[in-house]
Amino acid sequence: MRHGRVQLAETRYYRPSAATESVAFLLECDDASFLDFLEYIFRLDCLHRVGVDEDRLVREINDILRVDDLPYHLTDFVRESITRHSDGPPSFGGTFTYEEVVSRPVVISCENEVVHLEMTKPALDLLKDPRFKQANVEYLEALADYRQGDTRGALANCGSAFESVMKVLCEINRWPYQQQDTAAMLVKTVLEHTGLDSYFESTLMIIATLRNRLSKSHGAGMAEHEVAPHLAAYALNATASAILLLFGEAGVRRRR
After folding, report:
1. For residue 107, what are the β-bridge partners?
2. Which CATH architecture has domain 110-256?
3. Where are the domains of the chain?
4. pLDDT recorded at residue 69
5. Counts for the chain of helices (H) and strands (E), in that order
6. Radius of gyration over alpha carbons of the chain, in Å?
7. What's the pTM?
8. Torsions phi, psi of 209, nearest 5?
């Protein structure tokens, strides 16, 4: 269905088993199709066939990608603890807690191991906090846009993730803000309530400026905006760096 074919194998004479056909396709397909396959593993109900803990499977796939020096990385599962109250009989009633998957692993670009380990992954780890669920989704979408070559989309989602993080920080710390506040207003609010000096304003605002000037967030009119990959990579790295900075200044610790 993904590729619009009756069958994956390119043979006219026989139809192999589904497993054989899938393996044959994966050995010959292009890189994008194989990376899609890695993501599908975690979207479909098939992990019970592997016999390996799903988090361990993510780690082992990443080990293989790292050993082969491939510029890709699978993100972790993001889960949220849900507490429910049961109104059943006394012997069965009470409160119980379970984990619900918020987001599943996706493949992101990992072109620089140091940048990934020091900025991107720590930022994603902080965004696992359930309170930052929307920001996590937006930043993952930015990373996915970049991998798929949609650089303008990456800028737009970087800006959204940046704004979402600041709004949640304001909410947690009870700093005054409005839901419709722009990035510029949110940055001023954050600077007023943290130890950051005023000269950080222009540094933080670059994320929103790139979004406003070059992304899909505003109509381009007759002008065609082409965003070079290295500019989109800069926006992704700047967003991760800003997340780490703001979490540290706001004194927010990740809630599991």
Report:
1. 74
2. Up-down Bundle (1.20)
3. 17-105, 110-256
4. 87
5. 10, 4
6. 22
7. 0.79
8. -65, -45
